[in-house]
TrEMBL record:
Keywords: DNA-binding, Transcription, Transcription regulation. Belongs to the LysR transcriptional regulatory family. Residues 1-58 form the HTH lysR-type domain. The keyword Transcription regulation applies. PANTHER family: HTH-TYPE TRANSCRIPTIONAL REGULATOR CZCR, HTH-TYPE TRANSCRIPTIONAL REGULATOR YBHD. It comes from Eubacterium cellulosolvens (strain ATCC 43171 / JCM 9499 / 6). It comes from the Bacteria. One of its GO terms (cellular component) is cytosol. This is Transcriptional regulator.
Length: 294
């Protein structure tokens, strides 16, 4: 099988359509179909199922896709090394990130990086912690923003310590002579909570302080959580980074005991990054070193 065959398979899997994959790759749908058929014949099993709504990976296809991604990423790394030896800075870097990292850092990161390295293309994939970890492990992204608690067995370089805050409606009754809110003040409150895959650090704080919370509202999106709190449906715990430029009228309190989420860059193997990947990775660490608060 050729690299083109692998690229065809990957693109069809991502797009869920022969026609869409053909448009992306600049090939005809019949060429796409022929490449997949030839691949399946050589492998001895089907990698895609076809139906009226499009195509989907078979169980075999799901298992070999990470290996196909690894082959394509290795070829990209080789091309970048060759370009580096020629004195060029080229290539494509795929970055995974969670919501608040995407809204706070990614726009500035892309602009400042492209000013220095205009020939390096950046692709951004936004998702939950679980999404980013999956993308890294399966070679879909080169590295990703994660919290230390969500990285699992992935190597991670921490560069930001983000305080967790208690967010309340404006009519929340509290002893205003004290700046911080205590566990006891939060204990009997109704909470708006997010799924653990969205922010495990918050769930860890709730568990470690024996906060057996009451809630009817389980959301994923940060902004949805804040809107629910602003509307009086409960309180929540949010990282400070999320609360930057929030347009809704809520109160913010530091907590006692305090808590933080540690944010870093995670990848499969920091010692074997492609040149363009390493360049962006180092750029992010350097760009935000002034925010380091460890």
């Amino acid at each position: 099988m050729t690299l083109l065959t692998y690229q065809v398979f990957k693109t069809v899997a991502e797009m869920g359509s022969f026609h869409k994959a053909a448009d992306v790759l600049g090939l005809t749908p019949s060429a796409i179909s022929h490449a997949i058929s030839a691949m399946e014949k050589e492998l001895g099993f089907a990698v895609l199922t076809r139906n009226k709504s499009g195509v989907a990976l078979t169980n075999y296809g799901e298992h070999i896709l990470p290996y196909v991604n690894a082959v394509l990423n290795s070829d990209e790394s080789l091309q970048q090394v060759v370009a580096e030896y020629k004195g060029l800075k080229t290539g494509t870097v795929k970055v995974g990130c969670f919501s608040s990292a995407c809204t706070t850092w990614i726009p500035g990161m892309i602009k400042s990086f492209e000013e220095k390295y205009p020939a390096i293309k950046i692709e951004v994939f936004e998702g939950t912690y679980d999404d980013v970890r999956y993308w890294i492990k399966n070679g879909i992204v080169d590295f990703g923003f994660l919290s230390a608690s969500s990285a699992g067995d992935l190597p991670i370089e921490i560069f930001y310590r983000d305080p967790l805050l208690c967010i309340t409606p404006t009519d929340f009754e509290k002893d205003e002579t004290k700046e911080k809110i205590t566990i006891d003040e939060m204990r009997d409150q109704h909470f708006v909570v997010q799924r653990e895959s969205t922010d495990a650090d918050i769930q860890n704080y709730l568990r470690s302080n024996s906060l057996d919370i009451q809630t009817s509202y389980h959301v994923v999106d940060d902004l949805s959580t804040i809107i629910m709190v602003a509307s009086g449906f409960g309180i929540c715990i949010m990282p400070e980074l999320v609360m930057k430029d929030i347009p809704y009228d809520v109160k913010q309190y530091h907590m006692d005991p305090p808590a933080y989420r540690e944010i870093g860059l995670a990848c499969l193997n920091p010692a074997f990054m492609a040149p363009a990947v390493r360049t962006l990775y180092q750029h992010v660490i350097k760009e935000y070193s002034n925010t380091l608060n460890l």
